[in-house]
Amino acid sequence: MVSTVTSVACLVGAPIAIAAPDPGDIAVGTVTAVEPLAPEAVLPGSENSQRILYRSTTARDEPTITSAAVYFPPGDAPAGGWPVIAWAHGTIGLGDQSAYSIAGPGARERDWAYLGTWLKQGYAIVAADYAGLGTPGDHPYLNGKVEAHNVVDAVKAATRQYSSLAKKWAVVGQSQGGGAAVTTARYATEFGGPELDYRGAVGTGVPAYIEHILLPLGPHMPPIKLGAHTTAYVLYILNGLRTTFPELNIESYLNDSGRDWLARANTSTLEPFGDELTASGVVLGDLFARPLAQIPNLPTLLAGYMGMPESGYDKPVFLGHGLQDTDVLTPLTLTFAAKMQATGQPVTLRTYPTDHSGAVNASLVDSVPFVRDLFD
């Protein structure tokens, strides 16, 4: 069976439009197309990098086609192939135009410096876009298990496609991607199976327990001074809930203004959307027609959707966090680390005198040797 969705495949020369296979007809981790990366998505210092489309899983365990950028270090691969770093990116938006393998990183200077460090250490990098970013369907933002499937399947697809890649891999991520990296760490062995050799994870700016910010949302909620993009994050989460749980009828909890901003969020890129929300003076409480807490068993639903597991890790996990982080409040991530330690999980925590974004590169002094030890 062939779907009506078209994709673009190009190994050499001009792109050729082809009919994409129905994702339900192929196994996860199967490459369906290979494309050249746009110049803005090419990591400086990498060679022969490409965009792959591959079969993975999205909300409600439905099959989908998603995408990833694959970056190779210069020179010949070592014996056994380049070890792989799976990069789980932070929030860039929900619109297809913001997909990492199409537009490159939103925090370009920061992320290129970070990924460039791993590249210089001799790792190939597989950067998954997550389901619904740059490929058909909506992105179930912060759906941890979907992100974990997407990351693992990207590594599986890349290592099948390129003989120069080793099967041994670790995952690193920031912010949304920090949560994705940690959730991936919990399920990597299960989702990857014996085909892959998973070694461990690094998460910075990990969004622990941020599901709690949704519990008081509703009309007449007092205006609270929030971080620059917190309102955008909330609208993204509501879109993610709508994508994952259509039966909740999320729109019914919003007024006309709320539904308008929800629709805008679903096609937006984070930075300009956050600026638009700020310029418009949007107050979250003014977007609701009734309390979100009317959703039955909301805390449990949110914990299952976006909460990160506190136990069940079989490989080492490194958490790096900025003490001045106002996007993901530091005490919450410290609490998460403490609960992991209390259950005997193999977690290492380091903090840095910087903010949410600054922790990414500040952590390298600790995370580079941490990952090196994973591959020894």
From TrEMBL:
Classification via Gene3D superfamilies: alpha/beta hydrolase (3.40.50.1820)
Extract the InterPro entries matched here: AB_hydrolase_fold, Lipase_secreted
* A Gene Ontology biological process term: lipid catabolic process
Record keywords, A-Z: Signal
Q: Name one GO molecular function term.
A: triacylglycerol lipase activity
Signal peptide start and end residues = 1-19
Q: Tell me the Pfam families matching this sequence.
A: LIP
Q: What is this protein called?
A: Lipase
Species source reads Nocardia uniformis
